[in-house]
Amino acid sequence: MPDSYATFWKEPYHQALRESDEQKLTELVHAAEYAIALRLQELENSTGDGKERAEMKRASADLLVIKTNKLGWLRVQ
Question: Model-level pTM?
Fold first, then answer.
């Protein structure tokens, strides 16, 4: 595990944006979401990280779109 998760979440997120294989995409989505959660825990009591928090918020929204549109999860009827 890295000393800081500052960029740890970005790699699986960027890979998920490019992945077309459903099984690999599922794994990458889980890895990205987990890494984002770890980073948010790391930043819990810090300040001055608004840019990264905004990036993670956008990444989380993108991952939700992937889960809904590409993987067929969370379809609301």
Answer: 0.85
The answer to whether 68 and 74 are in contact (CB under 8 A) is yes
CB 19 within 8 A of CB 49: no
Tell me the residue range of the domain where 35 lies. Answer: 10-70
Asked if residue 19 belongs to a domain, the reply is yes
Which residue type, as a one-letter code, is found at position 35? A
For helices 22-42 and 50-65, the axis angle rounded to 10 degrees is 150
pLDDT tens track for 9-46: 999 999 999 999 999 999 999 999 999 999 999 898 88
Considering its fold, how many domains does the chain have in total?
1
* CB-count exposure of residue 55 (10 Å: 0-12, 13-18, 19+): middle
Q: Helix, strand or coil for residue 19? A: coil
